């Protein structure tokens, strides 16, 4: 079955850092509206906006205090409705972030729950008594520290939070909570939102016995990942599949909404349940590359990724979706450092590398999703001090590194490389102060390289990363090739050559071949096919013979 979103391209906006229209240093909705034509020309169809709801911003808006209000720093509901109209004029769609595993401790529900934990609103959350003067169980939150926080003024009573203590988890086993959430979701869809990116949704399933697990760190706590896996395996209560299908049937399905799930801890044989024809979501992120750098124990254990590992992960992921559905191909988001500093080998020029990575990933089967600035080849920030970091997760990882024996310099360098603050520096529009993001003082850092890397400079450079992205998505949209790129079968080739990632996309009798060279030596192949895209000048790649020379850092697309 074909869906309206199958051939679309997604662009993620981190609104605080995208474009400031009024000089207060914070990106806003009018700023987004002013860049709609830029995104349209890039080849974007769906704009995903990270949270713009009312929030105290303890976790940059992922702590929501009112699901039906726009945060004042971003604008008004009238401006948001204008954004929906402007998107519609351009045949574009707006999707929002849906954060419903937890809310803010400033939400009216939680304020009422604290006043009466045994009352109606207390049942909207998880309150438990401590054991022998200790929290109910030994769970470590995603941001460090115990997942149980003692209720102020109530001795030996705790509430559960998977993330920061200001983000209490919502009780998905309470029908009243579900009714509230479903009504809110439908309210946004009725307003004209085309769908949602759904945050941390697997965390909604809990093992309500809240049993202890074996500790996996010096703090005598157990990582939240094990807690989630244990809950998913629990036979008590509804399954995660039942819970997600109930959400879908009561909201998304009624509106033919596009939904993009942030899903971890899923078993391989469950993929069809998540993105199949009647799946819980339209798509889920393909985090196969991110998982190569991720380690449950933290960044201290993270390692550099080889091309061989990248190839194996992507091939496995592509083969897993055969005849099932679409995953969303992603290498950057608001929770990850910049991809050129993580995945591109040091011997490859970063501009070539940005194009190499984009072509290799976004011509795979799946829905392309790019993050603001990725299309410019924006890089990690050269942070100078620990105090420069804003992200609470980064500060937790810094302290964790120190506790494991790192020096202050080693722990700081680790955070410079992996911090998600790298993605949250302000967007680089031109070479004026702060990259043209604001006429005031930005809320966060502007990368020092904005004079060299910015959209205005790249507009007029035919060889820029920006113009290459435009060509890439125009090629994918071209009617001649669209069915191949969207619905074509994936077939890996040259699997035995470690530094070459190559594959064919085959649809009916037509095929397209993508070959990328991540190594240090040129790679020769016999070829009589048409070169329809390359990130390097191809005049020296092919002579009068049928030998095609693919240089280090080069990718070619052949028809």
Report on this model:
The protein has 559 residues and is α/β, with parallel strands linked by helices. It is built from 17 helices and 22 strands. The strands form 6 sheets. The protein has an 8-stranded parallel beta barrel with strand order 1-2-5-10-12-13-14-15. Strands 16-17-18-22-20 form a 5-stranded antiparallel sheet. Strands 6-9-8 form a 3-stranded antiparallel sheet, with no helix packed on it. β17 and β18 form a beta hairpin. The model has no long low-confidence stretch (mean pLDDT 95).
State the helicity in percent bands. 25-40%
Q: Averaging pLDDT over every residue, what do you get?
A: 95
What fraction strand? 15-25%
Number of helices: 17
What class would the helix/strand composition place it in?
alpha/beta
- Tally the beta strands: 22
Q: What characteristic shape results from the CA principal axes?
A: globular
**Distance between the first and last residues' Cα:** 26 Å
Spatial arrangement of strands, main beta sheet: 1-2-5-10-12-13-14-15
Radius of gyration: 24 Å
| Uncertain stretches | none
Major β-sheet profile:
8 strands, parallel, barrel
């Amino acid at each position: 079955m074909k869906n309206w979103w199958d051939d679309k391209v997604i662009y993620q906006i981190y609104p605080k850092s995208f474009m400031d229209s009024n000089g207060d240093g914070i990106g806003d909705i009018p700023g987004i509206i002013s860049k709609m034509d830029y995104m349209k020309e890039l080849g974007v169809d769906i704009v995903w906006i990270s949270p713009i709801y009312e929030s105290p911003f303890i976790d940059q808006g992922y702590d929501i205090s009112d699901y039906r209000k726009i945060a004042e720093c971003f604008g008004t509901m009238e401006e948001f409705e204008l954004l929906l109209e402007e998107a519609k004029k351009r045949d574009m769609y707006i999707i929002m972030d849906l954060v419903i595993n937890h809310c803010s401790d400033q939400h009216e529900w939680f304020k009422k729950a604290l006043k009466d934990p045994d009352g109606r609103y207390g049942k909207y959350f998880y309150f438990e008594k401590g054991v022998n003067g200790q929290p109910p169980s030994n769970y470590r939150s995603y941001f460090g520290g115990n997942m149980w926080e003692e209720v102020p003024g109530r001795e030996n009573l705790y509430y559960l939070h998977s993330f920061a203590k200001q983000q209490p988890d919502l009780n998905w086993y309470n029908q009243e909570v579900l009714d509230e959430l479903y009504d809110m979701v439908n309210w946004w869809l009725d307003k004209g939102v085309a769908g949602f990116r759904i945050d941390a949704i697997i965390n909604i399933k809990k093992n309500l016995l809240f049993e202890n697990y074996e500790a996996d760190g010096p703090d005598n706590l157990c990582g939240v990942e094990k807690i989630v896996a244990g809950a998913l395996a629990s036979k008590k209560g509804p399954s995660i599949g039942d819970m997600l299908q109930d959400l879908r049937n009561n909201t998304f399905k009624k509106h033919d909404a596009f939904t993009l799930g942030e899903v971890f801890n899923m078993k391989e044989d469950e993929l069809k349940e998540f993105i199949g024809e009647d799946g819980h979501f339209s798509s889920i992120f393909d985090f196969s590359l991110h998982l190569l750098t991720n380690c449950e124990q933290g960044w201290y254990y993270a390692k550099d990724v080889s091309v061989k590992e990248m190839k194996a992960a992507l091939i496995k992921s592509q083969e897993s979706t055969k005849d099932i559905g679409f995953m969303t191909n992603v290498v950057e988001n608001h929770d990850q450092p910049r991809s050129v500093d993580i995945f591109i080998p040091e011997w490859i020029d970063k501009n070539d590398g940005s194009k190499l990575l984009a072509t290799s990933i976004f011509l795979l089967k799946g829905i392309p999703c790019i993050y603001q600035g990725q299309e410019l080849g924006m890089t990690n920030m050269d942070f100078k001090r620990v105090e420069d970091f804003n992200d609470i997760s980064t500060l937790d990882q810094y302290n964790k590194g120190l506790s494991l024996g790192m020096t202050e310099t080693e722990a700081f360098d680790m955070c410079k490389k992996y911090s998600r603050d790298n993605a949250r520096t302000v967007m680089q529009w031109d070479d004026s102060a702060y990259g043209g993001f604001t006429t005031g003082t930005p809320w966060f850092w502007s990368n020092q390289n904005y004079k060299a890397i910015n959209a205005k400079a790249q507009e007029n450079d035919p060889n820029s990363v920006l113009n290459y992205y435009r060509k890439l998505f125009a090629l994918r949209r071209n009617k001649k090739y669209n069915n191949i790129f969207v619905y074509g079968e994936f077939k890996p080739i040259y699997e035995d050559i470690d530094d070459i990632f190559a594959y064919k996309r085959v649809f009916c009798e037509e095929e397209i071949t993508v070959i990328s060279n991540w190594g240090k030596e040129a790679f020769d192949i016999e070829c009589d096919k048409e070169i329809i895209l390359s990130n390097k000048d191809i005049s020296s790649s092919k002579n009068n013979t049928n030998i095609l020379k693919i240089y280090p850092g080069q990718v070619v697309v052949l028809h």
